Amino acid sequence: MAKNSELVAVALLLVAASLSVALLYSAGRGDGDGDGLIGGMPWTILPFSPMDALPLLPRSVAMAALRKLRGVADIFPVFVGAASARPGAVSARLEWKGACFYENEAWLEFHNDSGSEYGGGTLHIKTTKAHSWTCIDLYVFATPYRVTWDYYFAGREHTLDFKEWESEAEYEYVKRKGVSIFLMPSGTIGTLRALWDVFPLFTNTRWGENANIAFLKKHMSATFEERPKPWVSELNVDDIHSGDFLVLSKIRGRWGGFETLEKWVTGAYAGHTAVCLRDSEGKLWVGESGHENEQGEDIIAILPWEEWWDFEVTKDDSNPQIALLPLHPDLRAKFNETAAWNYAKIMDGKPYGYHNMIFSWIDTIKDNYPPPLDAHVVASVMTMWGKLQPDYAANIWEEALNKRLGTKGLDLPEIIVESEKRGVTFDKLLTISEQDKWVYTDGQSASCVAYVLMMYKEAGLFDPISSSIEVTEFTIKDAYTLNFFENNMTRLPVWCNKDDSVKLPFCQIKGSPCYICTYCVKFSSL
């Protein structure tokens, strides 16, 4: 049925397009005046876009067509440029092609209609040459101090008024850098459809799980093979050793949706990690950054294996896929268990390392962003988030950006202004490497993967080059592709992948789809 509805949807769209062209062709040629215009518009412009007609189609047909023609990337704005105050300099105005209007230009005029200390400004946006009579362009406008939005249906000059600048800093910034303009490339319907694609990723339902799997297939070319039961391995904990790496992928619920988007932007095929440790009496423990305590806080914790495993098997509603990557025998012999435990005890109870969570992902000005993301979009999202959740903003990026500037206490707008003063663009600032020695207001920061790799570093696995390694710069993908893990399948435990049709160089110990697939995990040298 799904296939049929897709074919019907596409057929109806083609019919709508064909009828539109035919009607306009006859109308444009029927009066004999040869001007090829209808109401002042070229006859080649459709009276409506087939996509604009989707709300009129049956819901199942419309949704099938949108699934075919839209992608989740449509929820992200595309930076088109910054409009500046350029009086009289028409040739220097910002110009771009929109999703609806193919010719657009913008410029900024300062005014002081409010009589305030720094005045305000008017952003002028001129839209022309719409591709249909019913399309709409949707825009987001931002400075480091504010974010607003507007949409344009008519081809004419529009204005967006900034009654007064928030401060001298915003006034000076806009004078130098202008107002950033972002286009929602799929217009209103496409953006809503993309949001509809993203919403189920965060639902704790079978629908949400299927949505996450579909997203990973579509956007990351991930492959899934059904594993034979039992989907929870009958493992022997005696075969698990200190330093063995646990890699998790959650595919439903709040964390499932977050991890899916994290995988997309980082290129990793897993979203969480933990590490195994044995104490002096041989008892097995799990060290984890990101354990949720009774107060709902994400902390670093050392848990008995039985407690950790029971939660993942019976209580974790995100339905995680879990893989165990045993250390290579040579690395296991090198692993300093005492040093690892010392680090684990120092970090026990500290908050999860939000401070360096995003900076392991961004290493270059352009190459780490999946389209249409870029540093401009990141800055606008940070600005919006800072207005909605200022405490989270300070925790996730503001203190870390202050570290990169050698400053303290600056908020995001002040960080951007200070960075520009120093001749460091914001996209360059984001690429400055995290340093393991940095200590934040709540202590040393360690995300889930930084925690494991810092333990490896303390345990001597990076010797003799550990002094040149910053593990807080590693992504999960960087971690599981290290040449640290077993690469000889004959040395894996007998219960490892015992009944699986696909034999992997690691042990998938929980999960029905074979998620961390063979082509994803490639073992390579550091």
Keywords:
alpha+beta; 4 domains; four-stranded antiparallel sheet; 18 strands; disordered N terminus
Any overview of this molecule?
Mean pLDDT is 80; it is low at 1-57, 65-70 and 516-526. This protein has helices at residues 2-30, 59-69, 168-177, 187-198, 206-220, 253-266, 305-315, 329-334, 337-347, 375-388, 390-405, 412-421, 426-430, 448-458, 476-480; strands at 37-38, 41-42, 78-83, 94-96, 101-111, 120-130, 137-143, 146-152, 157-162, 179-184, 245-249, 272-278, 284-292, 298-304, 321-325, 439-440, 443-444, 507-510. The protein is globular. The strands form 5 sheets. It has a 6-stranded antiparallel sheet. Strands 3-10-7-8 form a 4-stranded antiparallel sheet. Strands 4-5-6-9 form a 4-stranded antiparallel sheet, with no helix packed on it. Helix 5 runs parallel beside helix 6 (253-266), helix 9 packs antiparallel against helix 14 and helix 11 packs parallel to helix 12. The protein has 4 domains: 2-69, no CATH class; 74-191; 224-352 and 475-510, no CATH class; 375-432, no CATH class. The chain has 15 helices and 18 strands. The chain is of the alpha+beta class. Keywords: Signal. Residues 1-22 form the signal peptide.
